[in-house]
Design brief:
The chain is of the alpha/beta class and 261 residues long. It has helices spanning 54-61, 79-84, 103-113, 118-131, 147-159, 177-194, 205-211, 245-255, and strands at residues 11-21, 27-38, 43-47, 69-74, 88-91, 165-169, 197-202, 214-219, 224-230. The protein has a 6-stranded mixed β-sheet with strand order 5-6-7-3-8-9, with helices on both faces. The chain has a 3-stranded antiparallel β-sheet with strand order 2-1-4. Strand 1 and strand 2 (27-38) form a beta hairpin. 38% of the residues are buried.
């Protein structure tokens, strides 16, 4: 189902499709006719079960793979042009930190790669570390941090290049429920302070409702956009929100929107 918001969106997907060639030579339709507009500063969740194409769609937006049909525009430019301008920050399912580098040095790494001066690297990395609440751990190594703390380092590293868009691929899926809930609050605080556009991939319905402005539901076989649901809950959001009738009703609405699952 197309998203009918206006075409001056920060991110525009127009009839995007993706076909893979399987090892046996068969063509596999991973995505079909996905259209949506994402406005600057929105928090969008791509929600769906395994195999619905949500990570594929995220990778297309990030210019990691090319769609086989349709078009994607990032602020009127191609994903490739946006990537060259470093408009993206990426956070993965695991933090992917280097064990032999301290926390601060892990955050500085993208800046090292592009040749930012040492003084500027230190300044920007320290600022991002403070943003995620880990300034006192800058000299620690990843093995000395909890899983939740490692993911916060990953978020800080993604933000250190000052991207306009933060792409997050199930970043909390491996964490326990208590840590995940803490990071939900932390992420919303970071989003509010930075005003980034966030696209968040998840298969957790409650998580998507709690975090998002809109939940984009993808259904599988082949992957398609089956619903776009506005989450009109007040912000800032707290854990008490999950105990309200409004939250429960939206979770049910999202759950009932799936097709062919």
């Amino acid at each position: 189902m197309p998203d009918t918001r206006n075409n001056d969106a920060e991110i525009l997907l127009d009839d995007v499709g993706m076909v893979y060639t399987a090892s046996d030579g068969r063509n596999v339709q991973a995505l079909t006719s996905v259209s949506m507009n994402i406005q600057k500063g929105e928090f969008i969740s791509l929600l769906g079960p395994s195999g619905c194409g949500k990570t594929t769609l995220l990778r297309i937006i990030a210019d990691l793979i090319k769609p086989t049909s349709g078009r994607v525009l990032i602020g009127g430019e191609t994903p490739g042009q946006a990537r060259l301008k470093r408009k993206y920050g990426m956070v993965f399912q695991s933090a992917v930190l280097y064990d032999w580098r301290t926390v601060i040095k892990n955050i500085e790494l993208p800046l090292e790669i592009i040749g930012v001066t040492k003084e500027e690297r230190c300044k920007r990395a320290a600022k991002m570390l403070d943003l995620v609440g880990l300034s006192e751990f800058e000299r620690h190594y990843p093995r000395q941090l909890s899983g939740g703390m490692q993911q916060r380092v990953g978020i800080a590293r993604a933000l250190t290049l000052q991207p306009e868009i933060l792409l997050m691929d199930e970043p909390f899926s491996a964490l326990d429920e208590f840590t995940r809930e803490k990071l939900h609050i932390d992420l919303l605080k970071i989003w509010r302070k930075t005003n980034k556009t966030i696209i968040f991939v998840t298969h957790n319905i409650s998580e998507s409702v709690f975090l998002s402005d809109r939940v984009c539901v993808l259904s599988p076989h082949p992957g398609r956009l089956s619903a776009v649901i506005d989450i009109d809950l007040p912000r800032p959001r707290t854990m008490e929100l999950k105990d309200t009738a409004e939250f429960t009703a939206l979770v049910s609405k999202v759950r009932n929107s799936f097709e062919g699952v």
